[in-house]
Amino acid sequence: MLSVVMEEFGGPEVLRARQVEDPVPGPGQVLVDVAYASVTFVETQVRSGNGPFGRPPLPRVPGNGVGGRVVAVGPGADPALIGTTVVTTTGGEGGYAERALARADEVVPVPSGLDLKDAVALLADGRTALLLFRQAEVKPGEKVLVEAAAGGVGSLLVQLAVHAGARVVGAARGERKAQLIVSLGAAYVDYAQDDWVRRVQDTAGGALDVVFDGVGGAIGTAAAGALGPGGRISLYGMASGADAELDEDDLAARRIRTLGLFAGPGPAQTHAFIGEALRLAADGTLRPVVGQVFPLAAAAEAHAAIEARATLGKTLLAVGDPDAGR
Fold first, then answer.
1. Handedness of CA 33, 53, 316, 12 (dihedral sign)
2. Helices (H) and strands (E) in the chain, counts
3. Residues with Cβ < 8 Å from 288, sequence gap 6 or more?
4. Which end of the chain is more exposed for a tag (fewer CB within 10 A), N or C?
5. pLDDT tens for residues 9-34?
6. CA 73: distance to chain centroid?
7. pTM score, whole prediction
């Protein structure tokens, strides 16, 4: 089968397509004939070897999320899963391939009527957005800022906050991203402008109640300063390459709560969030934004596009037949 193998750390060029042996499912595992594989910003950081996640053993096939049809099961896995169209995590690697292994208890069937491409787009970003949104307890009428609002998680947070009745401002850079954010029901502010924080407050109508910080660095730091007393800041990413610099004494004085992905959900909650995200998309509440799809062999180009901030919404790799098993 064709897979993308990483034999060294470095730039996108270290991702090379290779023919390898098909994996064989072990106890409690399934084998998925992959139609789409998810590509995440975290995976670009792991590939570079310079991110906050350390350096895993090499060689490895990157990719932690896929969608496709179950074609085989290992000992102890339910044979009834064979032929089912699912999305699933892969345990941290193995997703950039024509066939991938996953734990049988981690696969989530794709609801009828939901496009498999959209389901894969929601696999990681949907569960993350739902977790962050529930933590923040956004209420109708509250003023909410979503940074990186045209990204995979950000675009979903915008939709959830708008659906909850909040006054939402999405921050990003560029006209394409502005158009997307406005189409999702939020106001737009370009944080390339020097006075972007003031513009956010003016647009929202005053001090913020909630900030979703997926950027960190100077942007996250400035956004925290725009929160009013009793506000919440949700820290879930550092696309800038650094964490926001937060003054704990200042936050305490303003009664600002700090939330985020400090302790991720357990397996059962993760599975439940994925299923809920798929149901919300199937009923039209959530619209996953798949901005670009690259062929499997062009995984390096996908990584380069993400690092260049040239992507909208979710980035996927097209691997096999999306209609297999339907």
1. negative
2. 9, 15
3. 118, 121, 122, 125, 126, 152, 155, 156, 281, 313, 314
4. C
5. 999 999 999 999 999 999 999 999 99
6. 28
7. 0.90
